[in-house]
Each structure stands twice: as C-alpha cells, then as structure tokens.
Amino acid sequence: MEIEIPPKDKIVSGGCDVALARKGVGWSQSCLGSKANETGVYVIHHEGLIKYVGKTNGPSMSFGIRLRREFQQSASGGKHIYPQLASLAVPPRIMVSLFSAADIKVLVQSFGLELNDYEATEIFEMALIHAYRPDFQRHQENRTAAYIKKLGITDDPEALLAMLKRNSDSE
User: Total structural domains in the chain?
Assistant: First the structure.
C-alpha cells in the first residue's frame, strides 16, 4: 500500500474560510463550494497549524453536514470540537482543506487489497492524523494502530505509523 501525504505547507496555505456559528446563528455550507455535497477527509487549520483531521462518515454524510456539526454551536450540542474551535483567536480565520473520495483514490493506492471509498477514506484520515499530529487529536494513536491491525494492512501497525511520521517530518 502507498499513501501519498500532501505536504503540510500545501494544506495550510490553501482551503476555504469557514466561520463559526454561535448559538442562534445559521451556518452556510456555501463556503465549501462545489465540494459541499461530497464525502472524504477534511483538515481544519489555523495560523499555519493543523488543528483537526476528520472524515465524513459514509456516503450519506457530506462535508457540508459534517462540518456543520463541527462549526455550528447548536448542531454540535456544544460537543465534538466546537468548544476548541470557539477558543481560537479569530482573526486569523479558521480554514478547512478538503480531500474528496476522488482525491483520496489517487492518494491511497492498494496493491493486492481492494478498498472501497470508505475504507480508503478511513486509512487516509488515520495517515494524516499520524503524519501531522493535530493539536486537537493527540489521543488518536492507539485507536489508529488497532484499526490498521483490524484491516490486515500490516502485522506491524506501529512500524507503519512510525514510517508515516518519519515521512511527514522530512517534508
């Protein structure tokens, strides 16, 4: 399996400006443009730092639906990462970079193992979490190692994660 990890500077230099919507304020997915109805992995960044990497949960959850749950206080129920996002000093803006399922098919190549879009999305999300170590997700490493082992990608998930970290550190 090969996973192409986009350079961090490329991710944090792009994306779309996504505003927080406090209680009683509507949130619009129009900031996501043509990808609002697509699925995949999203990267939330602020001041050049990656804060969170997440994914849409299957074909019925688009970027628009998922990010509404992160950025709108009433939709988040005050949970998820909304409180952490609300604590960030704005400006500068909170940005989100999107990787659609089509983008991920190019970035995640499996050889001898057929992956559906959701499996490739899960793998790409985990790879980005381990490569970039987002501020809001330092607790994810054990969950990722267990999931890699469950998928049967490798007998040594820790070695795969270490390789991802080495590759991201060299970029």
Answer: 1
CATH number at residue 54: 3.40.1440.10
Residue ranges making up the domain that contains 156: 2-166
Do residues 23 and 74 lie in contact, with contact meaning Cβ atoms separated by under 8 Å?
Answer: yes
Q: Residue 56 burial (CB < 10 Å; 0-12/13-18/19+)?
A: buried
Evaluate whether residue 44 is within a structural domain. yes
* Secondary structure of 41-109 in HEC code, one letter for each residue: EEEEEECCEEEEEEECCCCCCCHHHHHHHHHEHHHHCCCCCHHHHHCCCCCCCEEEEEEEHHHHHHHEE
* pLDDT tens track for 21-51: 998 898 999 989 999 999 999 999 999 999 9
| pTM for the full predicted model | 0.82
| Domain annotation covers residue 171 | no
Structure tokens, 154: 């490798």
